[in-house]
Predict the structure.
Amino acid sequence: MAKKTVKRKQLPKRKPVGKKASRAKNKKIYLLVLSLALCFSILAFFLIKDYFHEAESFESNKYFVKGIDVSHHNPILNWQSLLDTDITFAYIKSTEDTSHIDRNYIYNYSLAKETNIKVGAYHFYRFAMSGKEQANHFLKNTKLESGDLIPAIDVEHSALNVYNKDKDYMKTVVDELKILENELYEYLGIHPVIYTNKDCYKLYIKGNFPENIIWMCDLHNEPSDEIANWRIWQFSHKGELPGVDGHIDLNYYRYSFNEFKELQLP
């Protein structure tokens, strides 16, 4: 029996890729990668610049009442040098939670009182802990004299004050803060200042403390006029001033020297 011849289907021949074509293709890929890298670099530059750029000195032509705030994170200050730089006021950390006392408070307070700088104290609020006990701790360990600044409550997230979106937890944070605020109000006869930032203002302060003066931390923008009762603007954590080793927080009071009296205890 004769064998049948089977014709095989021939596949189209591949054109050989020459060195010239290969180099052109690699060049296109290289240029694409380079372009993308450049775009991302430019974007990253502006994001980082916007995030990390902070003023290192008082440069505003709008605000003239200048202040600082300090804690044990700063060394004991040369308060006379600060007076020479036209610092008007200073808030000094006094206490935190129900037991912590800032180790530098008593020294900074005494030295600052020897100058004409107006001095006030602040308490770092520990989330959801007893507001009454925190108030008692602050009042027991803080000097409050006529002419001093109205005490402030520091409300911000930290390693211990973590953000928790649980509604019951957030309610407890606000409820205990209200108790702390009211205890200070009952003792002083005046509402304490509340220090905070944009995130914590929206979460805990807005709508809950309409009578309190707000001390707003915003490292990039002036506080919005939507916060009608803001009076102090903390605009930098990286201030550099004569007589101060390292960085220090810088603040402006919103209005004039004459109106600044509203921040003083009767």
Q: What stands out?
A: The radius of gyration is 30 Å. The CA atoms of residues 98 and 136 lie 8 Å apart. Confidence is low (pLDDT under 50) at residues 39-51. The longest helix spans residues 19-52.
